[in-house]
Amino acid sequence: MAEDKDDVDDHWHVSAACFNCGAVRTAAPNLFIERNGASAFAHQPASEQETEDAWRGVLLCPAAAVRAPKGLKMPTGLFPQALAPGVWRLGYNARSSYGAHSYFTLAGGLRLMIDGPRWSGHLERWIAEAGGLDHILLTHRDDVADAGLYAKRFGARVWIHANDADGAPFVTDVITSDLAHEMLPGVRVIPVAGHTQGSVMFLINHALFSGDSLSWDFEKRALHAFRDFCWYDWPTQLRSLERLVHESFSGVFAGHGGSVVLDAPTMQRELRAFLDTVKAD
């Protein structure tokens, strides 16, 4: 059950349409919480920043369950949202990807989308004004959403690992290697089988786009992986994640779960602490 009834119109609330994907909680963890198996407001927005985050929840929620007070006007420029230099969260999360986050970044003069949002005319215009879209990089089969529509609109090439390729039959390029390598200028692909057999991560300018294989837990303030949502093999996923100790990155940008930016040495310490914890379980 969600926080409030659908007819509440005098304050911010989450309607019964919420299916508990967790997207708003991982985008604005200080404002949204889980309550009774659904997302809810921890409190009413109390600052300009919190009000913007609430409005982002309206656009981000794939169930249109985040509701604003009646008569309140939505500000502009909410998405794409800059998370780090050269990294934007696209918003407009899709029900078909269970509310996964997607991103836009730049590398070697290329404009890149990582995983797919739902189709949005606003995003289409923003991407066009940014110069278009060269490549769409899919971390795995679950977070495809409307990537195919964006690829068709901008003539973008689309990449996915061969073991997940049947989840996106429109792809133009299939990753076949199970070893980390530079697949495009400035783009390093790291195969991380486990969550799905064809899961990969993309390391771009010290930003690690981790799909559903690794995320940040805001409550524990630690890296986290979803054992209960591992669809292929958990021991394989842990072995795959051990590959990351040989990489240098300062940001983790997840499909499901939280994202975080630290410095590279701190990130490595967090990674090793996470691996030690899950191995001990």
Beta strand %: 25-35%
Could you name the CATH topology of the largest domain? Metallo-beta-lactamase, Chain A
Number of helices: 6
Low-pLDDT runs of 5+ residues are 1-6
Strands of the biggest beta sheet: in what spatial order? 5-6-7-8-9-10-11
Domain count, please report it: 2
Helix content: 10-25%
Keywords:
281 residues, alpha+beta, Alpha-Beta Plaits, Metallo-beta-lactamase, Chain A, 2 domains, seven-stranded mixed sheet, six-stranded mixed sheet, 6 helices, 19 strands, 21% helix, globular, disordered N terminus, Metallo-B-lactamas, RibonucZ/Hydroxyglut_hydro, Glyoxylase, beta-lactamase superfamily II
Short description:
Helix content is 21%, strand content 25%. The chain has 281 residues and is α+β, with helices and mostly antiparallel strands.
Explain this structure to me?
With 281 residues, the protein is an alpha+beta fold. It has two domains: 13-67, Alpha-Beta Plaits, CATH 3.30.70; 81-280, Metallo-beta-lactamase, Chain A, CATH 3.60.15.10. It is 21% helix and 25% strand. It is built from six helices and 19 strands. It has a seven-stranded mixed sheet, covered by helices on one side. A six-stranded mixed sheet has the order 12-13-14-15-18-19, with no helix packed on it. It has a two-stranded antiparallel sheet with strand order 1-4. A hairpin with a 5-residue loop joins strand 18 and strand 19 (260-261). The radius of gyration is 18 Å and the shape is globular. It starts with 12 loop residues before the first strand and ends with a helix. The relative contact order is 0.11.
